[in-house]
Design a protein that fits this description.
1 helix, Immunoglobulin-like, mainly beta, 149 residues
């Protein structure tokens, strides 16, 4: 009985993790010798969070990028974080926010999956890892411009 009470108490006192949902995660296949790829997905949370980092074992570096129009030109650049407002779906898509995979360790092949770890942070500064498997779509998959890295 003491053991059950102790477990219940520990669960009650443990920090609650935000419920994060990721849908339609994908990466476009790469051409031979290509060193970069981008990951796209839809992410939502039941509480206000920020996506503050991402990692993948297939890349030497991973960055969160945004696309903006500046002086009638499309500019892509890394950002420190992306807000994930409670109850809203935030879409990472070609021509918009995306996760850049750089220094690829090998080709990204159609119908494989790419492991991603998304790091989200709450208002309290606590971080949580969200593990994702992004499906690889054909090199010809539609959805926006070319990333010039």
């Amino acid at each position: 009985m003491k053991r059950i009470v102790l477990i219940a108490l520990l669960l009650f006192l443990s920090p609650a993790y935000a419920q994060v949902t990721v849908k339609d995660a994908w990466v476009r296949a790469t051409a031979p010798q290509q060193q970069v790829a981008a990951a796209y997905l839809q992410i939502s949370s039941v509480e206000d969070l920020r996506l503050v980092a991402a990692r993948s074992p297939i890349a030497g570096a991973v960055e969160i990028h945004e696309t903006r129009m500046e002086n009638n030109m499309t500019k892509m650049r890394p950002v420190a974080s992306v807000a994930l407002p409670a109850g809203k779906v935030v879409e990472f898509k070609p021509g918009g926010n995306h996760i850049m995979l750089m220094g690829l360790k090998g080709p990204v092949k159609e119908e494989e999956s790419v492991p991603l770890t998304l790091v989200v942070e709450g208002r309290d500064g606590k971080r949580q890892n969200v593990e994702v498997k992004a499906m690889v779509r054909p090199l010809t998959a539609h959805g926006g411009g070319h990333h010039g890295h």
